[in-house]
Amino acid sequence: MMNKDLIENIGDNHISSNVNTPLLPTAFDKNDDEKIKTIQHHFSKIMETLGLDLTDDSLSGTPYRFAKMYVKELFYGLNPENKPKLSVFENKYSYNKMLVEQNITIDSSCEHHFLPITGHAHIAYIPKDKVIGLSKINRLVDYYAHRPQVQERLSLQILKDLQTILNTEDVIVMIAAKHLCVSSRGIKDKDSFTTTIEYGGCFEKKAYRNEFLNIVNNTTK
Ligand SMILES: [Zn+2]
């Protein structure tokens, strides 16, 4: 067990330890219904500890709603079974310029405080022999966002998957997002947001990054 100062420090500095989401080997021993039951039980204890009366009509269903929301909605992306099928196609048009998919909604949660991270992802790649259906990029972002996350790791997980699926290093992922744990607690800054950029291949070159940033800056509303 870490001391409390270190716990706060890791949270406020949003330090992440690994590209992979840290999961227990037993992560999927329980099915969704069993997880909902367990979380429901423990969340009712949290509410009781806070002094809330769970016999009140308005509160009695909250532990179940909370548990179902965690397992089926906010954190569905923890389970690899929920990963979207990312079919790719042959690049028949031989399109080999930059393809940019932008303004993809980010709906995530910070793993240090379990509070929302909201914003947008902008992603580009330069196809080699394979192309991907555009909505599949959105689905992949949605999947990785629906885990307890750190923004840096979210960017990397999306990048690495796209590089593998598309069989090219030429991918760039930029995320700009607000963290509720920064705006509503701690420093309580309502306006700041965080931008992360991860890339490989030709995007190591400044000219490619600039072309991407120009497109994003000039066309994103
Ligand atoms: Zn946080």
TrEMBL record:
GO terms for molecular function: GTP binding; GTP cyclohydrolase I activity; zinc ion binding. Zn(2+) binds at C110, H113, C181. It is an enzyme of class 3 (hydrolase). Pathway: Cofactor biosynthesis; 7,8-dihydroneopterin triphosphate biosynthesis; 7,8-dihydroneopterin triphosphate from GTP: step 1/1. Keywords: GTP-binding, Hydrolase, Metal-binding, Nucleotide-binding, One-carbon metabolism, Zinc. It catalyses: GTP + H2O = 7,8-dihydroneopterin 3'-triphosphate + formate + H(+). GO terms for cellular component: cytoplasm. InterPro entries: GTP-CH-I_C/QueF (IPR043133), GTP-CH-I_N (IPR043134), GTP_CycHdrlase_I (IPR001474), GTP_CycHdrlase_I_CS (IPR018234), GTP_CycHdrlase_I_dom (IPR020602). NCBIfam families: folE, PRK09347.1-1, PRK09347.1-3. HAMAP family: FolE. Homopolymer. Belongs to the GTP cyclohydrolase I family. This is GTP cyclohydrolase 1. It comes from Seonamhaeicola algicola. The gene is folE.
